[in-house]
User: Fold these one by one.
Assistant:
Number 1:
Amino acid sequence: MLNDTFLRQRMVRELVEERGVKDKRVLAAMREVPRHLFVREHLMSQAYQDHALPIGGGQTISQPFVVARMTELLEVETTHKVLEVGTGSGYQTAILARLARWVYSLERVPELAHEAIRRMRQLGILNVKIQAFDGTVGWSEVAPFERILVAAGAPSAPRPLLDQLAPRGRLLLPEGDRHRQRLVLYERLSRGLRRRELDQVGFVPLIGRHGWEEEPPR
Ligand code: SAH
């Protein structure tokens, strides 16, 4: 049995806070969401360490620090409707759900989407809607969004996502090549978009109509 409360406190202190994440609400959310329940059983003992872990289908659950850092940069408020692209395990989704009013999350791999839906149910998280489709086209039925977070690396910001951003809205995504990217934060201002380049990161590719093409099978 894991002493998961203790491990989470330590994870937040050593892997998140000591590296400069300060937002109290983000730190509290990271202390509360049981990260070990978002990985397969044989990886649970590694859930509070400093790395991304495989979640099936060649995808990974992001490193704790990266989740915290991105969430902090997004500045999510309790009234916000958030769009997440790349649900993966649903860990980041669960963190966002503690901070926002609503979280809409899109995942292109149906099995991952279904597993994440099951986890939300298991954890009693009610303000999340997850669907399995290409998130590069956004979710026009529920747009606009005050915040959009993309958890996979894009060649550039998908136009539909920028279009679905509310006034003063923020879009955070990794932009770069298929393996290495830089976090880019877009902000919709009254006179257009502000664009800021931030940390270097390494996400799996964002595959879809306004992202990368699927890699040919070898
Ligand atoms: N933050 C997640 C990890 C995301 S990994 C977590 O905490 O677990 C990136 C995810 O983006 C993968 O699951 C991948 O399948 C998904 N993805 C890639 N391209 C996508 C697209 N166009 N639309 C939706 N999801 C996509």
Number 2:
Amino acid sequence: MCSQNRLLAINAIAERTHGGVQSARPASLASYGEDVFNAETMCKYLPRAMSTKLLATIQKGTPLDSSIADAVAHAMKEWAICRGATHFTHWFQPLTGGTAEKHDAFLELSPAGKALMGFSGKNLTIGEPDASSFPSGGLRSTFEARGYTAWDPTSPAFIKRHANGATLCIPTVFCSYTGEILDKKTPLLRSLQALKKSVARLMGCFKMPEEIITVTLGPEQEYFLIDKKFYLLRPDLVQTGRTLFGAPPPKHQQLEDHYFGAIKPRILAFMTEVENELWRLGIPAKTRHNEVAPAQFEIAPIFEDLNLAVDHNMMVMEVLRQVADRNGLVCLLHEKPFAGINGSGKHNNWSINYGDRNLLDPGNDPHENAIFLTILAAIIRAIDLHSDLLRSTTSGAGNDHRLGANEAPPTIISIFLGDQLTDVINQLENGAVTGSKHADAMLIGVDSLPPLARDVTDRNRTSPFAFTGNKFEFRGLGSSQSCASANMVLNTIVAESLDYICDKIEKLPEESFNAGLQEVLKDIIREHRRIIFNGDNYSSEWVAEAERRRLPNLKATMDALKPLLKPQNQKLLVKYGVFTKAELNSRYEVFMEEYHRKVRIEGGVALEIARSMIIPVVAEEFGKIILAQRTIQGSRQSYGAAGLRTIAEKLGRATDKLITSTAELEAALEGKHEGILQAMEELREIVDLTEHLVDDSAWPLPKYREMLFIY
Ligand code: ADP
Ligand code: MG
């Protein structure tokens, strides 16, 4: 029987009636986007001339006309008040990795002291939160604490509801008094601008007319749900988001019976409520399913404009947490909440559109194919040259436990193209047919590509960067990470490679354009094909092979952050106006410090749990056995003495080891992170062992078999 606290939790869960919050409605088309100040609402609340100007800003990225700011603010306020809002906030994404908000009421007082609801153009477009406590990595000293937030009109304002009201949220960028950027959105927006410019230039080379260029993202989000009653009994989960102790139960994910399994009613009720909220916020939640690990799930939206999709993913994570809480659950977004079973990631599906055409969709006519292959070559070159920079965006204390652990892609970045596309690339490289697969030599713009089936047959799940028919899927991101940085890197490095190609093909005379292009692409493939790998990325052979190919393998955060300081990477990001050198250096400092702090916090929590929760229980158990041994010695009992001695020995050794391991961790906490991680691991090993030695009714921490299976 389990401990009193655990028993109470289990009984409460057993008695709960399913269904989540009773009033929850399913998501509906009628309420889709009702809490967003979208184009439709804009047109309803604004004079036509103004909504046209605003829409142009949003769609074409033209600068916002400041003369309309007051009118837009007024319309937004009227709409928000109608929808129950009393406050507004600039909503931004500081380097903490989360989102930030500081609310102000619309309330204003007239000179006569009369209360009014006001919201000016200035309120809308610029905010001045005290920024002294946000990480800046030395860019700003606390005495010049002022930070600025500025409206990003390309992501619509929305309303966030709570039990007693609502708040108008205005997506903004965040920078310092002196203009240095302090957030994740600004560099993303800058990278988007760079990529769009380079794509437009490339389309010009192909004599294509001007069109609106967009970059799209569909992030698939994994998460765990456990009952809140268990969560509250685990100081490690409460403080660090992951279990620092806990022996994996005999049955966890081996049978793979959870993946795509029937969704339990309580979870489905939760998902329904999440979708209802997301749809109201205009977030197109589309797919829901059970994931591989027990108690693990996934939500995926329909892809959208990249900047919006990044904001939406931040909101998805928040809604998941809040709705879980209302349902007596806790949503764990940590990359590795439970040792020994799969952790959670975020698949980043990315593509580029020209008008309504997806440029990563191999077309059928020769002209379209040439453009497709050129972009493909640019991506191959970009990833090969800067895979370390892309890797840096997945670094972090949480993701370190997941990457390379044969449940997620390794820390070596490579590209999966699939057999068909690899064959095409081979032909391109050789400038002629390589096998019998296709009848014609492949000459760009002359012969058409063999028809490529949209859904590539082999969906290699082990690759960190995979072509999946009409998009690239980057699978390195951790479940709690913002998509902003990874896409910022992706956009910028691809922009640079496109420009590299444009530099070469822009000068080509029309009659030799195709042949010239073919040469350029051939050279790129020759030089960068080492980055392509279609095999099993989890295998040890690949690690060895990648080393032969000299592909970077940055195994953990400390190394993975270094590419931010590499001159070649810095030069690129500065050239494209995404960062200044100082901003990059500061980011390195911020992420390093965050990493060290997290490790230190984990060490402190582990020490506290071991000392105040585990050791007393083990010592008591040991005492019980010693007492039993004494009793047996005084009796004439001939059986049991040997058995008790064995138990006593095991418990005694465990007690000694626990005491030395906690002392070692305490000492390690004075030193470097490597020592802390090592000491935590050793302590965990002995704690997890004692979990099976101690009377179940005395074990204070909810066990894996309970958290992962009872909900
Ligand atoms: P999977 O098998 O990996 O689940 P799906 O086809 O279901 O693949 O798509 C996963 C995600 O990719 C979804 O969020 C989807 O919207 C997104 N996606 C599909 N096409 C594109 C695209 N062209 N650009 C960006 N994301 C896309
Ligand atoms: Mg999926």
